[in-house]
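Reviewer 2 asked us to include a model.

Predict the structure of this chain.
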Amino acid sequence: MSQVLTISCKLKVSESQAVKLDATLEAFMQALNWVNQNTPQKIVNAVKLQSHCYYEVRTRFRLSSNLAQQNLSAGSRCSQSCQAKESSGESV
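Predicted model (structure tokens):
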């Protein structure tokens, strides 16, 4: 069994770094919304979602490869969660 450790920290960044971080977070959130709005509901598999959206997310939102992949992984988990709730009759 593996153990997972979590570290919480506060970053001390310069004003220019803060602006860049805010811009990156905004782009990431916009990309999540775009993926949610532009992906057919039937796609919940992370691999299919990546083949459907990866390059568009990288180009449109200028995200790095790592951030684009994390974005699509989060989008896939969200789609799976919503689909499971719909199947059980819960409101989404």
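The radius of gyration is 16 Å. The helical segments are 15-38, 46-61, 65-87. We have added this to the supplementary material.
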